[in-house]
Amino acid sequence: MEALRIEGLSKNFGALDVLKDISLRVQKGEHVAVIGPNGAGKTTLLNVISGELPADAGKMHIFGQDITGMARYHRVHAGLARSFQVTRVFGSLTLLQNTLLAIQGMRPSRFQMYRSAFAYEKIIAKAEKLLQLLGLWEKKDELARTISYGEQRKIEIALSLSLEPKVLLLDEPSAGLDLGEVLDFIELIKDMAREKTLIFAAHDMDVVFGLADRVVVLYYGQFIADGTPEEIKANPKVREIYLGVRQK
Amino acid sequence: MVFRKPIWRSQIAQWAPYVITGIALVALTPFISDYFKYLITKILIYAVFAMSHNLLYGYSGLFTLGHAAFFGVGGYTAGILIIRYDIHSFWLVLPASILMVLLVAAVFGVIALQAKGLFFLFITLALGQLCENVATKWRTMTGGSNGLVGIPYPDLGLPGLTMNPSYFYILVICVFIVSCFLLYRLTHSPFGEALKGIRDDEGRMAHLGYNTWLHKYLVFIIGGMFAGMAGVLFGHLNGIIIPAHLGISTSTMAMLMVIIGGSANVFGPAVGAAAVTILELVSSIYVPERWPLILGSAFVFVVLLLRGGITPHLVRLLSRFKVFIWKH
Amino acid sequence: MKPILELDDIHTYYGESHVLQGVSLKIPEGSVVALMGRNGMGKTTTIHSIIGITPPRRGRILYRGQDITRLQSYQIPRVGIALIPQGRRIFPFLTVKENLTVAAAHSKKGDGWTLEKVYSLFPVLEHRSNLRGNLLSGGEQQMLAIGRGLMTNPEMLLMDEPSEGLAPLVVSNLISIIDQLHQTGLSILLVEQNLNMALAVADYVYILNKGRVVYDALPSDLEKNEEALTNYLGVAA
């Protein structure tokens, strides 16, 4: 059974056709990079899959379950999680509170109104493990809006990973990070997404080649290439419309 | 492990502030005049009302101007049951009134939560005014624009105990303390944390698996129920409930108490309730007709100069005072 | 050659946080200077200090010898400096044409940038001239942001991370655009993470670390200096 199956997906904004009847099958455990020129529809694709935007046509399935038309939170329970290009963390809450919220998201205890949120030892233990892995446990009581952008980015990714999703969507995960941070980040995601199915949109070729075992190229709403990173890098059409002639 | 503390110490730390405050207030009973008891009772009732408003505004990001509808429905239901239906037992009147508020909030919540932000504000405002209008027109039931008059003190049904200002004062203290306790637990529970997340970024919460509409709906009803309870006590306190207690002027007052007191923590609005009530008292002695001007000025003052309300500044002042005492 | 812009030991604070701890740099007239460094080291704060969003508490900023340290933000463009901000920040609900002409209200008269000249530099903008800003792609928005800055007829551009979020092909295009602007005599202070871009366009490079300038050199020297690359930019060898 495929981790993600998209069939005949279309999305338009008025007269502007952003996604044109696209189909994609992702197997369990694959790490797929979605690349393409600005305005090609990468973020729109992620938004439609995650439920931020409704599709105009087509169907989507996660491990056989039809998620087309499901509310956003429902898709999370079906096993899908995403992160955002512009970091969205809960600024007025501490790092620990941020992480607890994410871990609690799938649990019935999120409706508990009497017991303290900090009394759930198993959940705190999970949060501690995650924050330790990110090197942020010492800052657990600092407000998310006071830490640096690179650290906020880590929390952003941590939030979606806390959901222990089956399929993880990352939108430009390294956006806003400097050169050094990107390298650390690639290692981090490699580590944490090891067994998961990963689909990510990116412009940074280091990230693409560091994480992906498969690359699909989106060009004006359609997939024009699909292959291993090396194949895509050498693909003349891709060089023409996206990579440019000069290559590192 | 970081979070393990000896059980008994954490239990005492949890309960102590409430017990101490409660005992301190009750202990004043023989020493203060009936009027003073009336004043404190009024403050505590408003405090519960304001804290319930903050549950929606400060903790969930739901800016409502119709919260008094629940306050008034509570008061009116209690008054109607006592005066029109001759049901006097507090143990029937209070639950019934809260149940009524629950039903009204359940309906209003479905309507209002279709919208967000500014439109949510308008709808809650309209619903509050709707209630005020119904109360004015439904003369046979509600007494019309004159309101329900002659609401007696609550009948606790305890042999040998006739309710008087002192006993009512103690009753309200108990309700206040219990409300503080429950609201504190709620805002620090997983549900409470979720509300804060929704306030900060509702969309992100949806992507973490939270049915945000349901959370907002539940807090809307719960906040309403606390307001309704305050409304019941308010009716008993003054003996009268009028349509204005359902409408915008009362809702605005709750909002002002929250902002003046401070919305960042559970008890801030209680401080705001005290500040506004005392200010109203002072104003009524010297310049009664200028009360709206004084209240408005106080609001502007707080917004411009005391960011975050009185409470954070008060806390800072007190801790500096503590340091001063310590040094000397 | 006299520098067109000079920062003299500036110290900028965010509240009590001492972000810039004595930054000094000179931009010779008509040159492209790159300001680099890791995140949080003070690059954007430097830009914000120049344009008056976070004025420095100590030190001076001199434009053609004139002290502009205490000028308000809206006075800076009148002096001749245009900002191309991080994240583009074009007006989303105005069309391309409106975005460009709104800025032109404050342009100096004479032989300068006009709508036609901007269109000839960025033909894609002419094709999209009636499209609302928020419907443009990232690369198109970057062109628009630059065009908008040019319409104020500046002598100097401050460009804050123009390549961020752009496809490799667009970044190549951007490099040639900056070269062209360089040819017209514009002075440019370029804040950039993209090392290749910085090395390709800059005449000189400064690197900030923890609010101080820790390295400054010609691009060709930086390229060879592995220690600086690793320590200050976090680039793997």
Question: Into which percentage range does the β-strand content of chain C fall?
Answer: 25-35%
Rounded mean pLDDT of chain C is: 89
Query: What is the averaged pLDDT score of chain B?
Result: 91
**What structural category characterises the helix and strand content of chain B?**
mainly alpha
Q: Count helical runs of chain C.
A: 10
Query: Could you name the ranges of chain B where pLDDT drops below 50 across 5 or more consecutive residues?
Result: none
Structural shape of chain C: globular
* Largest sheet, strands/sense/barrel of chain B: 2 strands, antiparallel
- Helix/strand class of chain C: alpha/beta
Question: Topology of this structure?
Answer:
The complex is a heterotrimer of chains A (248), B (328) and C (237).
Chain A: E1 4-13, E2 16-26, E3 31-35, H1 42-50, E4 57-62, E5 65-66, H2 72-77, E6 80-83, H3 95-104, H4 121-134, H5 149-162, E7 167-171, H6 179-192, E8 197-201, H7 205-211, E9 214-219, E10 222-227, H8 229-234, H9 236-243
Parallel strand pairs in A: 3-8, 3-9, 6-7, 7-8
Antiparallel strand pairs in A: 1-2, 1-4, 4-5, 9-10
Helix pairs in contact in A: 3-4, 3-5, 4-5, 6-7
Chain B: H1 7-27, H2 34-57, H3 68-83, H4 90-112, H5 117-137, H6 139-142, E1 148-149, H7 165-188, H8 190-200, H9 202-206, H10 212-238, E2 240-241, H11 248-261, H12 268-286, H13 291-305, H14 310-327
Antiparallel strand pairs in B: 1-2
Helix pairs in contact in B: 1-7, 2-7, 2-10, 2-11, 2-12, 3-4, 3-10, 4-10, 7-8, 8-10, 11-12
Chain C: E1 3-14, E2 17-28, E3 32-36, H1 43-50, E4 58-63, E5 66-67, H2 76-79, E6 81-84, H3 96-103, H4 115-121, H5 123-127, H6 138-150, E7 156-160, H7 168-183, E8 187-191, H8 195-201, E9 204-209, E10 212-217, H9 219-224, H10 226-233
Parallel strand pairs in C: 3-8, 3-9, 6-7, 7-8
Antiparallel strand pairs in C: 1-2, 1-4, 4-5, 9-10
